[in-house]
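Table S5 (text form). Sequence records supplied for joint modeling of the two-component complex.
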Amino acid sequence: MTSSRLRRAVREPLVHFLIIGAVLFLGYGWFGADERSSNTIVIGSGELAWMDSMWQKQWGRPATDAEWNGLVEEYVRETVFYREAMEMGLDKDDTIIRRRMVQKLEFLSQDLVDAIEPSEDELRAYFEENPTKYRQPDLMTFTQVFVDPDLREDQTLPDAEIIKAKLDALGRPSENMGRFGDPFMLQQYYPQRTEAEIAKLFGRGFVENIAGLSTGVWHGPVLSGYGVHLVYVDERIEGMMPEFEVVQDRVLVDFKDGRREEFNEKFYADLRARYDVIIEAESPENDVMASGEEPK
Amino acid sequence: MSWGRNLHRNVFFRDDQGPDMPFSSVDSDKAEDLWTWLETQRNLGHENFAIPHNANVSDSMMYANTTSYGTPISRRWAERRARNEVATEILQTKGQSDTHPALSPNDEFAGFELFTHLLGTGGVVGKIDNSYVRKALTDGVGFQEYLGANPFKFGIVAGADAHTAFSDNEESNYTGVHGNTDDTPERRLSGAVSTAGEAALEFGTPGATGVWAEENTRTSIFDAIKRKETLGTSGPLIRVRFFGAWNYSNNLATDSDFVEKAYAGGVPMGGDLAAKPNNATAPTFVVWALKDPESGDLDRVQIIKGWYQDGHAREKVYDVALSDNRTVDATTGKAPPVGNTVNVQNATYTNSIGDSQLSSVWTDPDFEASQHAVYYVRVLEIPTPRWSTYDAVALGVPIPEGTAASIQERAWTSPIWYTPAPDLVKRAPFYPGLRQIMP
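The corresponding structure-token record, covering 735 residues in total, follows.
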């Protein structure tokens, strides 16, 4: 009888309901307990030591009581907001968080490659293979006399010829060349300048125009962004290849940069190979819309 | 920075060691505390100065006529500011801080590269009043008259504030300033506005600073900035000389020993005119500008004067050298425009207008010996295509509406100041321009 009652009871929907209810109740109790624990912020000795060391690094002294309280309270505030934000899923689909995660992974992988110090032989080989990186720039010494088209207008080129004839007669530039040509803010004589320096003063066109000029005679008219110049090149000094020892530190940096780049590419290629990428739609066209036009 | 108002200062050290820790806005958001720190560092042997940066988005706070606490400026405060902030940034990628059309209604070139909204606010337009250099320089001489000290006695530099490590200061070579939000023509012209309210279209190319230093070394350049022998440009490497004196000869600008004679007879940009000799009637300035050989020719050289009159700020812009033999119209007081050769379809221009160099010896026609005054130079290039025009041509699309097709690049020099001898000073009873009343 007991067993038949029991059997009937097992089939009774109300009993099912009660049992399910009890399971849910117990389960809720467990989850509830879990929820309580996730609402607990424990600041252990590890966190405290970390805060202390960060503070000392920045200020070179231990925090005062007030600063310490502020520090701990700020950490609590940050943790509360962080947990709430995670709970709300604010980390999902966020460009900045994605970038930060990518960056952290890149830092980790770079640390691996930076830890390996190259040998001197490797560095010397790199130096030999990349001479253009270390050769010193060519140096040029020249004198220029300016003929101003804004002053002389149509007479600029004929006048330049007349001035050049006088300069040809003079030959090598002397002191006080200011008596030739028109007032000009830049110097007439520039000793030992690199192409980059000359370009900054006279423009890149002028650098090209004087590149092939022979030394020891007057040339012109040579054009620049300012106007017309008559130019005398004293000498060109070809850039020297420095000794390895002189540029060793730079070689080390360049070598590591190169290796890091290689490693990063390989690191990504290996990871990328593990993924199947499905692109479902064409990317939007690279059309730039004038303002007012509706996006496509 | 507080609430999108930019109050940043760039701090420079003369030595290459510097202090152990920088001073940040976490330490204090009051400029006075930064000065205390700078003074402490100087006492510790780290010579330094600070340069206010991006004043145009400071919501009228960068050159406020009060302290950071809202109290009136004292003589000691003015002296501390002048000692710690020896230069100011007149242009950077987020606009120019020279002046605003609302402050300089008679300046037809004031509307250049305006960037007026506060940072990270979604586009809130900031207050204009004390956000601009010209008004600050003028208020400075007002304070000199009122207090006997000038808080805004600074030189002029320009900045980049590019976050990309490129110096892409040429319009034709602009690659953006904020990495992957504006690194392609498509992104720059899209008109998209970031959540902070900034559109790539509103940014300009970085500026450039010129320094008249003895040599290209850290200490020499530091010292030159400290004595304010500097100029700022909107990008092109325009070179400008500017000197003031009481008795320069009228042909000094074409003298082959111009620089030696100008230094010997007067003061360079950043300097104070010597005491007025009894026989002198007005100061004379000599200015010489040379174009960037890679950029547009020069349109004109202007001297901008700021002074205080009966407690009110005044300014006037004088055209002192004009290209192509133009002259100022005697009735309107304006020079005819230089013209515009910009071809919008191809993003090209020609240097068929304008001059390579311009110079002038100029005597102030409105000089009053009793009025404190400040003079600085602005040099304008002929119109050339803005970076956005190059981008539009590259993409084959129209220039976005509301964006200038061409701009007149420019350079500004550090000022030269005139301070009347004490017996000449006439103080006003009220200084409404400074919101100050004589004690």
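Note: The two ends of chain B are 33 Å apart (CA to CA).
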